[in-house]
Amino acid sequence: MPPTNSPTLRQRRLGAELRKLRQRAGLTATGAAELLGVNQARVSMIETGRTPISSDWLRAMAGVYDCNDEKLVDTLATMTGRRTRGWWEEYREHVPVALVDLAELEHHASGIRVAVVIHIPALLQTTDHARALFQSAAPPMRQYEIEHRLTHRMKRQGILHREDPPPYAAIIHEAALRMGFGGPVVTRGQLKHLIDMSELPHLTIRVIPFGTDRFPATGPTFDYVEGPVPQLDTVQLDSHHGACEFLDAEAQLHKYRAALERMESCALSPAETRDFIHHRIQNL
């Protein structure tokens, strides 16, 4: 496990955005350091998230980089300072660090859009369904690993039930509804849970049925996590070995926004989706 003082995803993202601003200004790290009155190592440490900075210092850097996007600068200023000690930090030594980063990313999200083909979205899984998934992992997890993963996943779901939940939209392929992890009883409970969750005002669930001829080949499951401004959106990919990959390049964000729009165009409506899931429950 990485040391607990290693930069979080949020700290790394702040540094990455500052690097983008510097590069757009046509400055090298050495040139930026000279204008800022610091050494090049300080600029590099900031851009890798290893050195926290104040909001005043952030604004000074944005000024040197000729960034006139006040909304972006104001948003970046809220990301300065030392790391947020959220609930996810207690799991840093118990689950893969990418899952800790994912929980922090979700906590700060302005909105979340998810596209899945094989698995029910993590934030919509029942405890029994999630446990069945972890028990089916290869290679097998130890029991304490399963319990850590399980409690971490259930705590992540808290963002959907807080006073100010982010809008959440899930597009689920019919294949995920038919996988049957945990057997018929667990599957029935999971499907009923999807219907219950779909009634929440900030939550939308839509199913893509088999036979849809316009289904895009997007690859793995992905989450599109919206930031306070579009430049701070993030795509999270599930890798084949169970870890997470985070993407934030403009071209990558455009690609996955387009994939979501394509999937939404061939998905059932929310009302049709509820009827579809009801029918699936009746046929279990």
Number of strands: 6
SS content category: alpha/beta
Low-confidence stretches: none
Strand content: 5-15%
The radius of gyration computed from the alpha-carbon positions, rounded to a whole number of angstroms, is: 21 Å
Whole-number mean pLDDT: 93
Distance between the termini: 42 Å
Strand order of the largest sheet: 3-2-1-4-5-6
- Tally of contiguous helical segments: 12
Largest sheet: 6 strands, mixed
Helix share, percent:
40-55%
Shape label: elongated
- Secondary-structure element string: HHHHHHEHHEHHEEEEHH
Commentary on this structure:
- The protein has twelve helices and six strands.
- Helix 4 packs antiparallel against helix 5, helix 7 packs antiparallel against helix 8 and helix 10 runs antiparallel to helix 12 (270-282).
- The radius of gyration is 21 Å and the shape is elongated.
- A six-stranded mixed beta sheet has the order 3-2-1-4-5-6, with helices on both faces.
- The protein has helices at residues 9-24, 29-36, 40-47, 55-64, 70-77, 97-107, 127-135, 143-156, 174-177, 184-198, 250-265, 270-282; strands at residues 111-116, 168-173, 203-208, 222-226, 234-238, 244-247.
- Helix content is 46%, strand content 11%.
- The chain is α/β, with parallel strands linked by helices and 284 residues long.
